[in-house]
């Protein structure tokens, strides 16, 4: 049976992550409070955010910017603003 967490992003009980994906306090916070579903949503946003902003994850400033967006999206009900991104029309 999957580990259950109360997901702070989705505001409901859901399957938790199988293991801590990020080291340190932020990783523990994500592991304890974010569901697999919310993490999968973040991963899609993260990819677009990195690509549209041409982030280099070897650059500490770029990594800090990405981490700020992650915290905003997962814990503060934030929307990730992706400059230049236009959603496909249906």
TrEMBL record:
Similarity comment: Belongs to the Fe(2+)-trafficking protein family.
Role of this protein: Could be a mediator in iron transactions between iron acquisition and iron-requiring processes, such as synthesis and/or repair of Fe-S clusters in biosynthetic enzymes. Necessary to maintain high levels of aconitase under oxidative stress.
Alphabetically ordered keywords of this record: Iron
GO cellular component, one term: cytosol
Molecular function GO labels: iron ion binding
GO terms (BP aspect): cellular response to oxidative stress
Highest rank taxon of the organism: Bacteria
InterPro entries named in the record: Fe_traffick_prot_YggX, Fe_traffick_prot_YggX_sf
NCBIfam families assigned to the protein according to its UniProt record, in alphabetical order: PRK05408.1
Protein name: Probable Fe(2+)-trafficking protein
PANTHER family: FE(2+)-TRAFFICKING PROTEIN-RELATED
Species, as recorded: Alginatibacterium sediminis
Lineage, top ranks: Bacteria, Pseudomonadati, Pseudomonadota, Gammaproteobacteria, Alteromonadales
